[in-house]
Amino acid sequence: MRILVIEDDRDAADYLVKALAEVGHVADAAVDGEDGLAMALDGQYDVLVVDRMLPKRDGLSVIGALREKGVDTPVLILSALGQVDDRVKGLRAGGDDYLSKPYSFTELLARVEVLARRRGGRNEETVLRVGDLELDRLSHLVRRGQDEISLQPREFRLLEYLMKHAGKVVTRTMLLENVWDYHFDPQTNVIDVHISRLRAKIDKGFSQPLLHTIRGAGYMIRDSAR
């Protein structure tokens, strides 16, 4: 899941970005309303987490501008203003959910996942399948046949991206930008290491390999039996 956090408290924003990454999501941050609006318009995000009180442009104005432009990305509003009237105003401005500060990360994560699930039900699958390999994007469970496979958060994101592009070549640049969030090649073997670990987990012990290296091009996950 790709999430944009629009929060002017840099410590709070950094905390959320780090915490979301630790559970396997990609998160970006903006620290004012104008930058947040621009990023929300340009980026393909699954959920936006928007602080209500922002410099340059307040959170409700950001949400209103997005809705006027036809952007329907789910929005979780964060605010120290927690009265009923404040929540109603936020929801009427186009927010999908409202969480008062202070909050627990566990609750925020649950609310973000619910918003993604609602949107996923309309626009994209929440369970990905290639052959007998199954990945549940919401529960983070991975199975091949009857075997449950334990993956680290980065391995899960790597497999999720490959399965979303099943049957297509995925280049190193695509993986760096979408799984590691690098916009350049840092001359590292990080991809090779993770591909090797992932292959050992999803292919070892099975007669049909699913993860393939396409020499000189990248990687592909496909059902070899078809």
The rounded Rg comes to: 19 Å
Order of helices and strands: EHEHEHEHEHEEEEHHHEE
- Compute the number of structural domains: 2
What is the number of helical segments per DSSP (H or I, 4+ residues)? Answer: 8
- CATH topology value of the largest domain: Rossmann fold
CATH architecture of the largest domain: 3-Layer(aba) Sandwich
What is the assigned CATH homologous superfamily of the largest domain? Response regulator
Note the overall shape. Answer: elongated
Secondary structure: elements and pairs:
Elements: E1 2-6, H1 10-22, E2 26-30, H2 33-42, E3 47-51, H3 59-68, E4 75-79, H4 84-92, E5 97-100, H5 105-123, E6 127-130, E7 133-136, E8 142-144, E9 147-149, H6 153-164, H7 172-178, H8 190-202, E10 211-214, E11 218-221
Parallel strand pairs: 1-2, 1-3, 3-4, 4-5
Antiparallel strand pairs: 6-7, 7-8, 8-9, 10-11
Helix pairs in contact: 2-3, 6-8
Written account of the structure:
There is one protein chain. The protein has helices at 10-22, 33-42, 59-68, 84-92, 105-123, 153-164, 172-178, 190-202; strands at 2-6, 26-30, 47-51, 75-79, 97-100, 127-130, 133-136, 142-144, 147-149, 211-214, 218-221. A 5-stranded parallel β-sheet has the order 2-1-3-4-5, sandwiched between helices. A 4-stranded antiparallel β-sheet has the order 6-7-8-9, with helices on one face. A hairpin with a 2-residue loop joins strand 8 (142-144) and strand 9 (147-149). The chain folds into 2 domains: 2-123, Response regulator (Rossmann fold); 127-221, Arc Repressor Mutant, subunit A. The protein is elongated and about 60 Å long. The chain has 226 residues and is α/β, with parallel strands linked by helices.
